[in-house]
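User: Hello, can you help with two protein structures?

Assistant: Certainly.
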Amino acid sequence: MDKKTFKDAFHAAVPVILGYLSIGLVFGLLLTGSGCAWWLSLVMSLIIYAGTAQYMAVDFFLQNTPLWQVAFMTFLLNSRHMFYGISLLDPFARAGAYRPYLIFSLTDETYALLTSVAPPPGADPARFSFYLAAINHAAWIAGSLLGAVAGAVVPFDLSGVDFALTALFIVLLLEQARAVPAKYPFLAGLVAAVLALALFGPDNMLLPAVVLAAALLLPEGRKAETRGS
């Protein structure tokens, strides 16, 4: 292990670590509070590793949702990662043996770090990205497992705790705004979110908002490519 690169990655990941420990703990509490076994939290966090989708799965379990509907809704919810992946095609193509795990572990928060935190001088970019992703994943597993075990032992009042995921997104947005000088992407995201909310409602706005934001950002990306060439 490259200890210096790992320490740098850990330092960069601290905001996500704290957030994942918190929202992972809430997920574990919600899961066991719905009547599921504590170990299911560990399995889901290891294999699925999709925070919002795992939260949504709790409702699916409670409502005994058909498997095809679970698969379809999960695909729609996580299809935004396809847009994330487009911007990471080049660095992931150079990641070698790390590439499969980097693809699997690309969450919203990890994407925010990969696109805003530069590897330290002299560090292997692929290894630095791998450490970032693995540290975040470990934090999510630890938080969800802790919450599940605690929820299985002690009953909790869970009113309002699901806001933790929203709070983490707000923190990451502020960090991105500080790291990225251009403000147009944030304005485009805001416009896309407001329009999607107005047209599709809060339960169906996510995918339309991502598509609309991508459409608004595409011309700006082409201008940047033209300037770069």
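That covers the first. Now for the second protein you mentioned:
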Amino acid sequence: MISLDFAAWEPIYKKILEDFGFDRLGDEQAALLLSGMLTEANSVGLSELEFVISKKPVLVCGNAPTLRAELLELELSNFVIIAADGAAAILMDLGRIPEVIVTDLDGNSEVDIEKEITACEKGSLLLIHAHGDNPDKLEKYVPRFKRFIATTQAGPFDRVYNFGGFSDGDRCVFVALEFGAASVLLVGFDFEDPAVNPIKKKKLVWARELIKLCGI
């Protein structure tokens, strides 16, 4: 798998930027913005994330339309749950607060984001991701999160981390493996969802390749 070493991740990141035509500078500026919002009071140490995940079975929840039905087939108390973005709202509707939420705040409805804020208040660890398309969401919502870890897909610095991955779902997998999950089970992933737009379709292609890279 890709490790915390950015040198191993950067060649993949460059390919993603080229494929989508994204601007690295935008990612870096967003990461600087998020870094400037960090304080001692709202920052979570990586040791806390490791304590939650290490040596435990992890359920990674994507936000495909099949998620709710898949969750109802499982005993959720058997897992540490890492939820991708809007998947957290589905889990909370089912009465389960995820231990970890990975979000860029950029694909959710207002209701979903409110539920993420509530989850944070109830103990969820949030990994909030900065990229070139979400500075407005960072400015609007980050001050309402009391405890979080800042992440970037560009070069890490200070307390802004890069654990690998591109979209919320595959970043969940990288986080689970980076912090020593005993096992990783995926639910709510549909890499061939016909209902998504062309950009989302391309993101799903990359998500599948990155998750394969992790050996899942």
